[in-house]
Amino acid sequence: MATVSVYNMDGQTVGTMDLSEAVFNAPVKENLVHQAVVQYLANKRQGTQKAKTRAEVSGGGIKPWRQKGTGHARQGSIRAPQWRHGGVVFAPTPRDYSFKMNKKEKKAALRSALTAKLLSEDLIVVDRIAFDDVKTKNMVRVMKNLGAEKAYVVLAGSDRNVFLSTRNLQDVKLSSAGTLNVYDIMKFKKLVLTQDAVKTIEEVFA
């Protein structure tokens, strides 16, 4: 069982915590981590691109001039792709890029990502993160104390003051344990978890 130090918001060590072997010492399956990241990005795509084909652009359907005798190349329609304002060849149409991963694969990918962060010593456990008022400098100070200026911070639940103090920080993202995802774990250098968040994650993904 892995044991990690627990820090307070001042960056001081206040104790230790045992992490679940099933969640934080799982086999690192890179193929599932990659698939989870691709799925996350694919599911975010809107897929609303659209261009008109020759069947959809406005314009007459008649032949612009006779086939022979004009000196011009033969043409069948002014809506053809080679004409100005003509249709687009193989025009893109709205589509859904999303795809699914089964639950076992998702859990295995998340366990792999968490284990990778622990092995690379980029996992930081904090006893709590809470503020009495809304100030961005509060979160900046905490991240500086923890040595995690670029971090993915996960709380057990939602905290309005912490959320509002974090939203203006470009290199820090805040979420709850219920919305934990592989993409953000791998994107940010450091992963900061509160003790309650660790317990919630272990209960859900063990």
Short note summarizing the structure:
The protein has helices spanning 21-24, 30-44, 103-119, 136-146, 160-166, 182-187, 195-205; strands spanning 2-7, 13-19, 123-126, 151-155, 172-176, 190-194. It is α/β, with parallel strands linked by helices.
Describe the structure.
Strands 2-1-3-6-4-5 form a six-stranded mixed beta sheet, with helices on both faces. By secondary structure, the chain is of the alpha/beta class. Helices cover 34% and strands 16% of the residues. The mean pLDDT is 94. The chain has two domains: 2-45 and 99-205, Ribosomal protein L4/L1 (Ribosomal Protein L4, Chain: A); 48-96, no CATH class.
Q: How would you describe this structure in keywords?
A:
206 residues; 2 domains; single chain; six-stranded mixed beta sheet; alpha/beta; Ribosomal Protein L4, Chain: A; elongated
Q: Poorly predicted ranges (pLDDT <50, ≥5 residues)? A: none
What structural class do helix, strand and pairing data support? alpha/beta
CATH architecture of the largest domain: 3-Layer(aba) Sandwich
The total of helices stands at 7
Order of helices and strands: EEHHHEHEHEHEH
Strand order of the largest sheet: 2-1-3-6-4-5
Largest sheet: 6 strands, mixed
Cα-based radius of gyration, to the nearest Å: 27 Å
| Top CATH class of the largest domain | Alpha Beta
Mean pLDDT: 94
> What share of residues is helical?
25-40%
- CA(first)-CA(last) distance: 13 Å
The CATH homologous superfamily of the largest domain is termed: Ribosomal protein L4/L1
Strand content: 15-25%
Number of strands: 6
Query: Would you tell me which CATH topology of the largest domain applies?
Result: Ribosomal Protein L4, Chain: A
Given the C-alpha coordinates, what overall shape results? elongated
What is the total domain count? 2
